[in-house]
Amino acid sequence: MRYGGIIFAAIGLTCWPQVVFGSVDISQLISAAKAGDTVLVPTGVYRGEIRIDKPLKLIGVGRPTLDGGGNGDIITITAPDVEIRGFRICGTGIDLDKENCAIRVNAARVTIVDNILDDVLFGIDLKESPDSVIRGNHIGGKVLDVARRGDGLRLWRADRTIVEDNEIHNGRDAILWYSTDVIVRNNKSHDGRYGFHLMFSNGVTIEKNDLFDNSVGVYLMYSSKLKLIGNRMLRNRGPSGYGLGLKETDDFLVQGNIFVGNCVGIYIDGSPFATPDSGRITENTISANDTGVEFLPAVKGNHLWSNSFVDNFEQIAILGRGELTGNEFDRDERGNFWSDYPGYDRDGDGVGEANYESRLLFENLTAREPSLRLFMFSPIHQAVEFIARAVPAVRPEPKFTDYYPLIEPPIEHGAELGSSTSLVMVALSAGLLSIATAVLGIVFFSPIRDAMRERRFIAVI
Amino acid sequence: MHNVVQSDLKSGGLVGRVETVAVVAVSHHGRLRVPSFASNVFRIAARELRESARSRWFLLYTAAFVALGLGVSYVSAASSGGSGLSGFGRTTAGLINLVILVVPLMALSAGAGSIASDRERGMLAYMLAQPITRLELLLGKFTGLAAVLLTSICLGFGVCAAILAWKGSRTDPVALASLVGLTFLLAMSMLGTGLMISVATRKSSVAMGVAIFSWLTLVFVSDLGLMAGAVALRMRIENLFALSLVNPMQVFKMWALVSSDTSLDVLGPAGLYATDIWGAGVTWIFACVMVLWIILPLTVAASIFSRRSPI
Question: What is the pLDDT of residues A56-66, one digit of tens each?
Answer without folding.
Answer: 999 999 999 99
